[in-house]
Every structure is written in structure tokens, then in C-alpha cells.
Specification:
The protein is of the alpha/beta class. It contains 13 helices and seven strands.
Length: 288
């Protein structure tokens, strides 16, 4: 099973335009390395790939104040719940951003050397799940950084005077960013990750019920998601139950807040930043 994109960035952008115009539901959800490693296990990856996956899992566990053990942790409630969220997110998405080997090659040729095969679910991984790729439309997980979407001025042109809701841990930074405020003004609502709502740490995984409780108050049709892998399935809940157009913007929202949270913003995708590259402070985000 070899996954190849079934829809281009331009085509997906047009689908979003139609969703906004007609107020129809839509979801675009991205799978990064953090999500892919949850799909991998010793039964469906090669030995060298397993080492990378184990290291990545340990990092994710640590970011959620969990201790990772190579054997025991895969039977933990945290692991099982997080993995189910990823699987549900894939199954229910309208448009699924997932890396292909060719895209990795193209990125490396373009000068981006921080990305490798751990971002790509191999054939054995995909065949071990009951994903219906005849139903899911696959596309690039970097659509969020596509200039016609990721550049804040272009996004404003896309939505016009539409009100938007942003789900993020960067609310305060966005509210104080001059470019962001000049672009959207008061036409933005926020659903924020806040430690006072968490049962463990200030991660979206532990605040799902608080986040979900705010869905009934969302006024806008367009919702931008940037809360990490632990809550990606909420994108499809907003689409299915509330009829929203939900776009997984990921770390582009950090860039809109004027922060660098991914190495990629140092070169190829600095166009998403709302401040000059030299003025952008680094913020190592704890949300994948």
C-alpha cells in the first residue's frame, strides 16, 4: 500500500473556499511524526525504524509528564487513548495530510534536512489498520504552510469578513501581535489551552472536556486548530456534530503569533511569520 496525494494544495484551497461560501462542513487534519509513531509498533516496523519510534514516543510521554517504558507503556491508558485519538482522526477526516516518501525526497532536495522517514507510515503500518483510503482524500501535511493559506494576508483574503475561532495555546501572544491584530481585529474568538483546566499538565490531551464544552458557543463557521496530536479528533467532531470548516494549522499559528516553534521557520517557511525573521523569538512548543 503506497499512499500518494489524491488532492493538490490548489484543489484543497478551492474546497475550503466552497465550504466557507456555502457553510458546509469540512475537515483538514495533518499527521506529523508524533502522530505516525503512535501507529508504529514492533510488529509492523523494521528494527532501525523501531529505534526512532521508541525515541519519539519517549519524548511525547515526557512532554505529558508520563514516564515511558519500551514494554509496559504500550499497555498504559495514556498510550491507548492517545493512539485511539490518532486512529479516529485519520478515519474521520475529509482531507488527510500525510507525508509520502517522494515528498520527503523533494523537501530534502529543497534544503530541508530535518525531516526523514519517521514522518512516513510504511506499507506494513498502513496495512495493519482498517483505514479506508478509498474514502479519505490524502494531501500534503504542509498545506498549512502553503502560501495562499499560511501567509496571514492571504488567509485574510480567503475568509474575507468571516469571523474565525482559533484553538491554540498561543492566545495571549496572538492578542499582542500587531500584525495579527491589524489583520483580524476583534473578529477572532479563542479556545485556549490553560493549565487551570487540566487534570495533569497544560496539554490539550488533558483538557479535552473543557475544550469540547466550548463548542456550543462557537459563532464562526471557520475554526483553526493548533492543539497537537492529543486532540486532533476534535477537528472531526466539530465538522460532524457542528458543521464547521476545521483547518489544522499547527505551528503556523505560532508563526502568526510571531514565534518560531519549529526549525523549518528558519528558512523554507519563514513567509508564515508575522515579524521579521531576525526579530522572532524561539518558543519550543510542548504540543506536537
Amino acid at each position: 500500500m503506497n499512499i500518494s496525494p489524491t488532492i493538490s494544495n490548489e484543489e484543497l484551497l478551492n474546497k475550503i473556499k466552497l465550504s466557507i461560501k456555502n457553510k458546509t462542513p469540512l475537515s483538514y487534519v495533518r499527521m506529523g511524526d508524533g502522530e505516525i509513531v503512535f501507529l508504529k509498533s514492533s510488529d509492523n516496523v523494521e528494527a532501525d525504524e523501531l529505534i526512532i519510534a521508541e525515541d519519539a514516543l519517549a519524548s511525547i510521554f515526557n512532554r505529558h509528564n508520563q514516564v515511558y517504558h519500551p514494554i509496559d507503556s504500550k499497555n498504559s491508558l495514556f498510550y491507548k487513548k492517545y493512539k485511539k485519538i490518532i486512529i479516529d482522526s485519520i478515519n474521520d477526516s475529509d482531507y488527510l495530510g500525510m507525508f509520502t516518501y517522494q515528498e520527503i525526497i523533494d523537501l530534502n532536495n529543497a534544503g530541508f534536512y530535518d525531516i526523514d522517514d519517521r514522518y512516513v507510515p510504511n506499507k506494513k503500518v498502513l496495512e495493519s489498520y482498517d483505514f479506508d483510503f478509498n474514502k479519505i482524500k490524502t494531501c500534503s501535511p504542509l498545506f498549512n504552510r502553503f502560501p495562499k493559506l499560511g501567509v496571514i494576508d492571504n488567509f485574510k483574503k480567503l475568509i474575507g469578513d468571516e469571523r474565525i475561532t482559533i484553538m491554540t495555546d498561543m492566545s495571549e501572544e496572538l492578542k499582542t501581535n500587531k500584525k495579527f491584530q491589524n489583520t483580524f481585529g476583534d473578529n477572532v474568538d479563542f479556545i485556549s489551552v490553560n493549565h487551570q483546566h487540566a487534570s495533569n499538565t497544560d496539554k490539550s490531551f488533558y483538557q479535552r472536556e473543557h475544550i469540547r464544552s466550548q463548542f456550543k458557543n462557537i459563532q464562526s463557521h471557520v475554526v483553526l486548530y493548533a492543539l497537537g496530536g492529543g486532540a486532533k479528533d476534535l477537528c472531526n467532531e466539530l465538522k460532524n456534530d457542528w458543521g464547521k470548516c476545521v483547518i489544522d494549522m499547527g505551528s503556523v499559528i505560532d508563526a502568526w503569533a510571531g514565534r518560531i516553534s519549529r526549525p523549518s521557520y528558519l528558512h523554507l517557511w519563514s513567509h508564515c511569520l508575522t515579524v521579521p525573521l531576525a526579530d522572532a523569538p524561539h518558543k519550543l512548543t510542548c504540543i506536537l
